[in-house]
Design a protein that fits this description.
It contains 8 helices and 21 strands. The chain is α+β, with helices and mostly antiparallel strands. The protein starts with a strand and ends with a helix. It binds flavin-adenine dinucleotide. It comes from Flagellimonas aequoris.
Length: 351
Amino acid sequence: MLDYIVVGMGLAGISFCEVLEREGKTFKVIADRSQQASQVAGGLYNPVILKRFTMAWKAKDQLEWGKPFYERLEEKLGVKLDHPLHVLRKFASIEEQNSWFEAADRPGLDHFLSPVVVPNQNPAIDAPFGFGEVKHTGRIDTGVLVKAYGAYLGDKGIIDRSTFEFSSLTHHEDHVEYLGIKAKQIVCACGYGLTDDPYFGYLPLNGTKGELLVISAPEFREGNVIKSSVFTIPMGGDKYLVGATYKWKDKTNEPTEESKNELLEKLVTFLKCDFDIVDHVAGIRPTVVDRRPLVGRHPEHHNFYVLNGFGSRGVLIAPYASGQLFDYIEKGVALDPEIDIQRFTKKYYGN
Ligand SMILES: Cc1cc2nc3c(=O)[nH]c(=O)nc-3n(C[C@H](O)[C@H](O)[C@H](O)COP(=O)(O)OP(=O)(O)OC[C@H]3O[C@@H](n4cnc5c(N)ncnc54)[C@H](O)[C@@H]3O)c2cc1C
């Protein structure tokens, strides 16, 4: 009898497996490749919402939790994941500069927002009003993480790359059983795949498609993340990520011409050097109606849990929410009501 079955191997599944390993639990992962948000994500960790100059939900705690988490993973997997980078928010006007100064004075934000205007020194960028600098930010290479973690679990023989068929799951008093595998608990970390899950499909997961371009721009020579109408994120060499789009109707993982054109139109408003597109990727962010994660126990099946709903902030939320779920299952620590799926129990019973 295993301790856990984990379904899904994006940021949610990986983070939960990490807690399980640390706590000496046995587990098996079942993960197909139907969803790819974690594989294609920009990977930015930035605790500040750059539209309104406010802190993102619990971002300071999540950052404190997340940084050592990715550090441990780097050591364990032998890959570079964390690339600390400053984010430069392009100002559109003097008014925006003033709002920034006000925000940089507020307790909490003062730790992250530098209280000066950074003048533009890059001839490849058009930014007459300069930038505001956000500190303690960076990029986790989530693509490398997903690949390396899959290989790690593969070497241990504890990952099955098939699609989890919910109809083959049976529930018993003190365990669940799936195609001959018995486990005390099962955690479903399926990202947008949750919408096909007959157990947790009642949860209001919208899904927001995002697309990113990878460009090669030898004359850009920019070491910071630039945030204007789109982000540009340095990937090393002359490669930059450009993104991302937000679309609510299309739920496929296919890159589209429409989003490519949208990204290019926005990019050329501030990038003034030549570039080539070298890649174009897409994925579905698991976004929730109330913008909070979906964590907790199934209303009827008490060995069955969900870990989902990280929206556009999976890098910071995943390690934090995984720790909470583990403490809830194993130590009986109550979940933060803001993330607990109990807030949607009425939906399960059709009210
Ligand atoms: C374009 C884009 C840019 C983004 N940029 C950022 C960023 O800069 N910073 C940030 O923090 N976040 C970003 N995000 C959001 C981030 O990617 C997500 O919050 C996070 O990856 C969600 O992780 P997850 O594990 O919940 O889901 P996923 O990564 O979608 O993983 C779900 C896993 O479950 C598997 N699965 C699903 N159903 C089944 C089934 N029935 N059987 C077996 N396996 C199944 C999938 O194949 C996959 O392995 C971005 C997302 C996109 C799309």
